């Protein structure tokens, strides 16, 4: 009897392995949806569309981007969390989601428990810019102005919990200034109002704001990375310009609902890592200020978990609250 049970167990295991392999080999057999929980024209949307096109070319099946913004990314993220775990609904996420784990405790999902990491895509510095009407030429002058007028200056963000918001809150805490947060439903609306002068300043992705700075539509004061951007070598970092040890970046990656077949996760990971390693992709993204990231699914899961822990500490010390 024991021998029969062992044989049956072996047959079932072999069938499961074969079925998983077949599932991965036939995937995708229909269009795949990549949900972007942010408004159109921001970094997550732009790079989701870039990756989607490359995956479409590789798999010969459409990878379609669908924007589901709202509630600081929670609406779109929850949609994916509750979608079938079959590889046909994916999430383009950023460190907005890792921030929200501590900033918004009563969410309808848990990032670590309800999702599995597929692959990171890239990261980039943020750029602190002010509208030219703000009477400052560098970061030191901005800090002095903010301290002389507590609560009078304001900064835009793409919404509560986004990297733009947390970069601002971290700056306020570390520089000892009081600047009012003005949340938007997406980065494009925030960017438009900073360029138009309706809002004083913004921490925005270098990939989308650098060109406005070059054109003089905004004044770039500092970059938020550890080192200066090769794209903007004359722009100091926030740490260099007066706030030691300051650092804040935006990174992007793809996740899927927990339970998605690991064979599909691995196949997607392999193709995405090929995409971000291509010389033409590296060269194009370098001009935009984006640096490719490459990890295995398990490495990415660990990275996500560590980022949740990192931002939990920053949310606590900064006193940031959902708007």
Give structural notes:
This protein is an alpha/beta fold. It has 2 domains: 2-124 and 251-318, D-Maltodextrin-Binding Protein, domain 2; 125-241, D-Maltodextrin-Binding Protein, domain 2, CATH 3.40.190. The N and C termini lie far apart (64 Å). Helix 4 (95-103) packs across helix 13 (297-318) and helix 7 (163-175) packs across helix 13 (297-318). It has 13 helices and 10 strands. The protein has helices spanning 2-26, 43-59, 74-81, 95-103, 111-114, 139-148, 163-175, 187-196, 206-214, 238-241, 262-277, 279-288, 297-318, and strands at 32-36, 63-67, 89-94, 115-130, 154-157, 180-183, 201-205, 219-223, 249-257, 290-292. Helix 2 links the parallel strand 1 and strand 2.
What structural category arises from helix and sheet content? alpha/beta
Total tally of structural domains: 2
Order of helices and strands: HEHEHEHHEHEHEHEHEHEHHEH
Estimate what percentage of residues fall within beta strands. 15-25%
What is the third-level CATH name, the topology of the largest domain? Answer: D-Maltodextrin-Binding Protein, domain 2
Radius of gyration over alpha carbons?
A: 21 Å
Task: Give the arrangement of secondary structure elements.
Blueprint: H1 2-26, E1 32-36, H2 43-59, E2 63-67, H3 74-81, E3 89-94, H4 95-103, H5 111-114, E4 115-130, H6 139-148, E5 154-157, H7 163-175, E6 180-183, H8 187-196, E7 201-205, H9 206-214, E8 219-223, H10 238-241, E9 249-257, H11 262-277, H12 279-288, E10 290-292, H13 297-318
Parallel strand pairs: 1-2, 1-3, 5-6, 5-7
Antiparallel strand pairs: 3-9, 4-7, 4-8, 4-9, 4-10
Helix pairs in contact: 1-11, 4-13, 7-13
